[in-house]
Amino acid sequence: MQEVTASALLTNKIGLHARPSVKLTQTAKRFGSRIEVATSAAGPWTDAKSPVKIMRVKAAQGEVLHFKASGEDASAALAALVDIVARKFDEE
């Protein structure tokens, strides 16, 4: 199974707080692939489908979120996640 990676710059004012964390996990859960996120390309990696774990990432505005996914829909999953981050989680 091929692993796909992507990254996105957090540009929303308050970073990855509660509401964006939930939106990110809701997006990730739409896909069957295993999806993880980190603030460093080297990790540590966090399950992108767990709201509690994502909130612990505590990424601030200006940080880069790194994604990796493996599974049949991995590319589509990462495209959707990068898109929701680029749209500032539809909050601004």
Search tags:
3 helices; 33% helix; 23% strand
Description:
The protein has 92 residues and is of the alpha+beta class. It contains 3 helices and 4 strands. It has a 4-stranded antiparallel sheet, with helices on one face. The radius of gyration is 12 Å and the shape is globular. The model has no long low-confidence stretch (mean pLDDT 95).
- Overall body shape: globular
**N→C terminal distance:** 37 Å
**Number of discrete helical segments:** 3
The Cα radius of gyration reads 12 Å
How would you spell out the order of helices and strands?
A: EHEEHEH
Largest sheet entry: 4 strands, antiparallel
The amount of helix comes to 25-40%
Number of strands: 4
- Measured by DSSP, the beta-strand proportion falls in 15-25%
Uncertain ranges: none
pLDDT averaged residue by residue: 95
Strand order of the largest sheet: 1-4-2-3
Structural class: alpha+beta
